[in-house]
Specification:
The structure is a homodimer. By secondary structure, chain A is an alpha+beta fold. Helices cover about 35% and strands about 30% of the residues of chain A. Chain B binds a DNA duplex through helix 3.
Chain lengths: ~150, ~150
DNA sequence: CTTGAAAGACAGCGGGG
DNA sequence: CCCCGCTGTCTTTCAAG
């Protein structure tokens, strides 16, 4: 895999903000002609730096008003039980983010739901999956910032 | 704004997973011809259900290996100080998500950084912005699931 | 890297059923 | 909703400097 130069990083900064731009517009912004700019994009996609192109939806407009952070401490730390737990939690579509953590908390989930009763149904399914020592749900009142574009070093 | 029917929801489920598909491919999957499918997409974009189209990058491949959840309890709850705090934190590019919370924790941030020393630099900037009663940083060891596609009710 | 050109795919929009 | 077809833009590839 080749190195990523300053122009590649500029291209990445552009497409992770707006992937609907044409090659011509991107090429103009980074000071290239279309052909080399297109080749760089192909290379960035082939090497996996660009994973995929997606459409971002408005959560409220598809009926998902609630965001909850769930912190979990498990009781049983045996590998087999944890692997099954990870697979089952990943399969739940309400779970958007799922991290294994350092420190006192074992897992953190970011969960979306239409309303509190839907979240409660999710919660009950979650705690029945395996014996959990502690589960803390923190409800978001307001999303102040929600960014998918990564900060790319210059 | 018109109602969103089952076909609209199917279109949304497709494009939030892969926005590189052509109109023809989407139309085929939902059982429409190109023209009405294209009109539905236009309407979904005009009404703001589809916010924008972006490219998703691999964090590790752009040198962002660290994800940290930061929980904040503020000391001063006066509106003016909080508004300034919210604006300043939002402006920090390491902050990808920033929520105001219900309960004991006032704010939760999801922060990315190249390494722990870069996070430490961020942390120092953060705690100097205003007097904070408690700031807890939890480091992610592993991202088990990271999903941008919202679960759309059938 | 550049320009220029060519072929094909696709979006975007109309008319008609 | 369907199909047909037009028009222009864009992608993708090529040759040549």
């Amino acid at each position: 895999m080749r190195i990523m130069d300053a122009i590649d990083r500029r291209i990445l900064r552009i497409v992770q903000k707006d992937a609907s731009l044409s090659i011509y517009e991107i090429a103009t912004q980074v000071g290239l002609s279309q052909t080399p700019c297109w080749k760089r994009l192909q290379r960035l996609e082939a090497s996996g730096v660009i994973k995929r192109r997606i459409a971002l939806l408005d959560p409220a407009k598809v009926g998902l008003g609630i965001t909850v952070f769930v912190s979990i401490q498990v009781g049983d730390h045996s590998g087999k039980a944890l692997a099954r737990f990870a697979a089952e939690v990943s399969a739940m579509e309400e779970v958007l983010d799922f991290y294994r953590m350092a420190g006192d908390v074992d897992y953190v989930l970011r969960v979306v739901a239409p309303d509190t009763s839907a979240f409660d149904a999710f919660y009950k399914r979650l705690i029945e999956m395996m014996p959990l020592k502690n589960v803390t749900s923190r409800f978001a009142l307001e999303s102040i910032k929600s960014e998918t574009a990564l900060p790319i070093a210059t």
